[in-house]
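Async update (no meeting this week)

Hi team, since we skipped the sync, here's where things stand on the single-chain job. The sequence we agreed to prioritize is pasted below, unchanged from the tracker. I ran it this morning and attached the output directly underneath so nobody has to dig for it. Comments welcome in thread, and please keep replies under the output.
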Amino acid sequence: MEVRIFKPAKTAMQSGRAATKEWVMEFEPGARIEPDPLMGWSGSSDTSAQVRLHFATSSEAVAHAEKNGWTHSVQKPREPRIQRKAYADNFAFRRTQSWTH
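Output:
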């Protein structure tokens, strides 16, 4: 089996970073996703696609994958680039665009 180990990114619907602290291990899809002929819902016969394991560190996740004999790939997280902004910047002389409100 092949697994992917990564640190999830912050979603657009949240302002905090609480769900981005743990490392996640997901299994790569083993079967195609096809629509159900009766209901039309998409589904697969591969139940391992529904499993997500959470770890405190990437080394714990790698050790777990190696213990079970799974091939793994680790994706390093990107650090967010923080742009400092201040309300006073709206009124600065160096502002290139005109004030809109």
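Quick observations from my side:
The two ends are 57 Å apart (CA to CA).
The mean pLDDT is 87.
Reply here if anything looks off.
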